[in-house]
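Board notes (copied after class):
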Amino acid sequence: MATYDMTKLANLIDPEVFADYVEQKYVDKGVFTALATIDTTLEGSAGSTLKFPSYQYIGASAVVDEGDEISTSKLEATPVSVSVKKIAKGIEISDESMLSALGNPMEEGASQVATSLADYTDSDLKAAIEDANVLRFVVNSITSDTLIDALALWGEDLNDKPIAFVTDNKGLASLRKDDDYINGSEIQTDAMIRGTIGQIWGANIIPSNKVTNGGGYLIKQGALRIVSKRGINAETQRNASRKTTSLFADKIYAPYVYKAQDIIVLEKHTSVTDISAKIESVEGKTSGGTVINYADLIKLCPANCSLVYKLGSADVTFNRGTALTGYTELTADEIAGGTSTKIAIAIVDADDKPVYGGNATLVKKS
């Protein structure tokens, strides 16, 4: 009796092949995602919240005379908790599309699923950067000079790792007009980071629609991590009544800023950002004294700005283009509140013009 081999739609859709293809394309499709190191050491382990250490620098070495004891520094790490999440996307392909000789719907579908997953991960990594204690630098525009000044924050550690500068299309256009701009075709392949359009002062320029602050992000390779709890998982579902096949893909992961000091956020402010909700006044130790949550506020302060305050009896309205006068630098010390009932706090640029500003009611020791 003769036997016949029939090509079925199930033979054309292999979930494992689909998953492998999406996994390969996943990193390529994102910008922040492409800059991140994929950490798979926790795949298969239990737990919905991961804790990672964020280590502080132990400081410079010191000269030790012969016979003297070498001093030690305490290695300190701040624990960072990261929530694990599952992201997923599905596509539906008709029998006619699969059996057609025109195009490759499986490849196109897998590519779009990878783009979709990477797009969400990009947003996650960007949010993680905004929440981390990274370096910050205020700019009025993206130019060769502002980039040099920002890069100077890394000092002698400037060239220890490849650097990416992620900016929007306006930032890219501005840098392309600069005489110091190097086109991507002129850069050695081993000096480039994936997605690079060009280079300036050693920074690989990568455009991204995720940049919405008018500035950009200087990121050293290895500063970001994607902790994978499970790689791309793919499954199919046959819809017999419609003669279609659905493919679903998901990934379980946690976005993580591995080294905050290897990231510089270039901020462009056209208006003053209100930080009133972030200002907290508590009783001091002496009569009339108050203490402001300095540690929380100084984290918001860009490297080329100052944190200042002024006491009074009414809230202050801040204007980005108007320099402040009569303000005092805010420190961690207790403030003598006197007869004042209000405190205005601002983060000002080099021209004393406010970038952030807010007001709070004083809580004083009676």
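Comment from the instructor: The chain has a mean pLDDT of 84. The longest helix spans residues 105-131.
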